[in-house]
Amino acid sequence: GFGARGSAWRSAWSGATSDLAAASGSVWVHAASMGEVVAARTWIQALLDSGHRAPILLTTRTSRGLARARRELTDRVVGRIAPLDLPQLLRSFLEGAAPWRLDVVETELWPHLILESRRRNVAVVFLSATVSERTRARLLRWGLAGPGVFGEGVWVLAQSERNAERFRSLGVPSSRIAVTGDLKAEPPVETASRDPAARPGVVFGSLRPGEEDLALALARRVGFDGGRALVVAPRHEEGLARVLGALERAGIPRVVRRETDRGTEALGDWIAGLVAGTPRVGILATQGELPLAYESAAVAIVGGTFAPYGGHNALEPAARGAAIVVGPHAEGIQESVDSLAREGALLSAPGVEAAAESVGSLLRDPEALRRMGQGAVRAASAASESARRSLEAIERFGLNP
Questions:
Q1: Active site residue 165
Q2: CATH architecture of 5-184+384-396
Q3: Is CATH 3.40.50.2000 what the domain over 190-383 is classified as, yes or no?
Q4: pTM for this structure?
């Protein structure tokens, strides 16, 4: 389920290729990695549903992101690995693709990408845009701000007012900024109303390096004490090896779900089977099944928040009605965390032991699980208006063909 990084790296060194001809005159949507591809998928679907007629070119920097995009999007979308941020490659790519607008999802502030697009009068729109305080300070320090980079031809559709203010400080005028929310926020799915107290799983999604100790603490508490199945979804292939090694050293039974298993057993049945007989920790090594796993989750732990990565998508499990637990490093998803906290859908734990204790307490409290699950659905529903607001902003700015 993982791999193909060498192929992606080679593709990133190429400029125009024959497949770009099919995307000539397109909207070019760029999404860095798997998380941004989720947002890009929502945006592309919104474009198509709104009657958009031009071709759509989607680029990403990872082979996994590209594989997911190709699996989930229509044949009206041309997908490929993005070129590196080098002027010569970008000139060749832009010449071949000839886009009339570049929609950049979230946090990809690549100077040459912006400059080369502007030189060709390609409108640059930052969608679901975020910029951390650290990145803002670095851009200012390096002189990569002001009208030279963010001048005419650049628009920002920010996730929050906090992010909008940071873009203003980088030189984007208020007249070219709108606050439209987070495109990763899906509307609640049909199964979101399923009682979380009756669900068999606890899902640790997008685990990052340094979070293996929490996986071990959860494995000891959830599978062997809480009567639920722990499912861990590592973010990358190296994470799979680290988690398996940690579980093996701790003597904890585990089973890996690989791509070859998808056709033999539905994911929900696989998760329920983990607690039959001897409890085992389930490891997801498949592509694109994490959202489905959340549908079986009483509790979802958001990876990248228990080590300094800023956090991954907390609204994905919320749209499936799971109670949410995050760690102390959630600054990259602060708006989502705040909205979930306002609805009583989230617990924030300061560390590994507190998180394991919080999960254990929740599993013993069906009413708390139900309250949090309902709050998660409310938060996801409110957040999922971003695509509509973004379409309205594009129209208001006069950026449609």
A1: no
A2: 3-Layer(aba) Sandwich (3.40)
A3: yes
A4: 0.79
